[in-house]
Amino acid sequence: MNTSETRYVSQQVIEDACEWAIMHGVAFRQADNTARHCPFSIVPMTIERDVYEHLKTVTPLIAKLISHVSEDHDFLQTSLSELAEADAFFGRLMELHREVHGDIINRIPPARQPLLLMRTDFMDDRKHGARVIEFNGIAAGMAPFGQRATELHQFIKTQWGSVYQDWLEDEHAIPADNVGMEQLALGIATAAKKVKAHFNEEGTPTFLMVVQKNEGNVYDQHLLEIELQKLDVRTVRRTFEQLSSKLSSGERQRLVLEDIGGVDVVYLRAGYQYMDYFSPELNEPICCQALSQTRLFMEKHHVAMNATISQQLATSKSMQMLLTMMPASEYLRWGLNPKEAELVKSVLADMKPINTDSIKWFAASGNKDEWVLKNQGEGGGHCIFGEDISKQLSRLPKEQYNAWALMQRLHPHERDKPTIAVRDGQQTLVNDLVSEIGLFTVHYKGEPVTELDGYAGYLIRSKPASENEGGIHSGKGILDSLVLVD
């Protein structure tokens, strides 16, 4: 990269774009309650139209598969039992799962109604084509930022047309529509109104977003809330700690929040790590018991919920590995037809379990540049690359093997032209930008609930190929959007 003092386009363009971003909520909250704009690219990335259409077709099928897997409770308990022993957090999730659903012999019909808000992340590998990186079934946010990035690039195109054309890879490329914010809100509102109708209640349904305390990524959340309010849905934000003493049961398993009333949808933007359930004031003998019981309490009520405990288990890295390793024909038990099953199978990247044999294989003949080592963590910082893989495998305790997996490392296309990344109001030239494509889907009780047959827009995060961490909030990633070429 070149230094940020070098200017490649007018500073006026950068200032206009940054101010547009702040004005439209494309920002992170700082500790002092100021806001800084999210980092972004000056123009979109280019993708072939047939690749994009293929991903739009296959991603709702993946969500359909995960929806059915997540409701196959016997399969979850038997197939993830070794993960539960290897990873303490997932062990706790499995305990909660058994409390909700009973054990295999004493199965209990669940009260909660599964609302799967999912983001499936892909990279378009140079050799193998588009492949799944991971499933995101809990705290699967940033659809509003994805849509706003598309709108930001349209603003630059309109206001600074010559700059836009100068930096675009292909002057004939057409922007890909992105209505992720509206479609996600539509799916949530549809579920909320169905739950409200179940109780024969009139009036505005209530949406509860469970959030982390003092988090910075609040504007993306508020943008979704604004869209829900436009659809006549009341929105409420609470942490697990705030909810711990404020929830109660109404008639017919109605979930009731003090001073609010009946809750129709619960959307977890927290709950994927122990810290979300930790409260020092409680001084618990068993870590995080009380607040995880709050989540359990919600699941025992008739409320549309994302993520259910079973959805979180079904979108784990271990389940991704199991689905990748099994033949496509086995997907038919979860509602896919043979053609759909083959489509899903075609985009799953190879994965290998960690055991004595795979460790020996990797040490003897594994190509360190063709694999990445992953644990079960969500977000950045949970992947190990290159020479560090062997080091980690050599010191990994045997009892933790089942919490890790090797996954085929994807090498996406780099942009044909350099582009400009804008961060903290400064521009930087990037010569090797690569992109990760996240597609959103919404299914309620296994059925699609968007105007696009379950599809609900996209999120593009780009980063220099030389960087491993591509997160927008904490890594080296920047917001981006798509333009299509034939």
From TrEMBL:
Residue intervals passing through the bilayer: none
Entry keyword Nucleotide-binding: yes
Species this protein is from: Vibrio hyugaensis
Protein name: glutathione synthase
EC number: 6.3.2.3
Enzyme class of the recorded protein, top EC level: ligase
Alphabetic keyword roster: ATP-binding, Glutathione biosynthesis, Ligase, Magnesium, Metal-binding, Nucleotide-binding
Taxonomy of the source species: Bacteria, Pseudomonadati, Pseudomonadota, Gammaproteobacteria, Vibrionales
Cofactor: Mg(2+)
Limits of the Glutathione synthase substrate-binding domain: 206-314
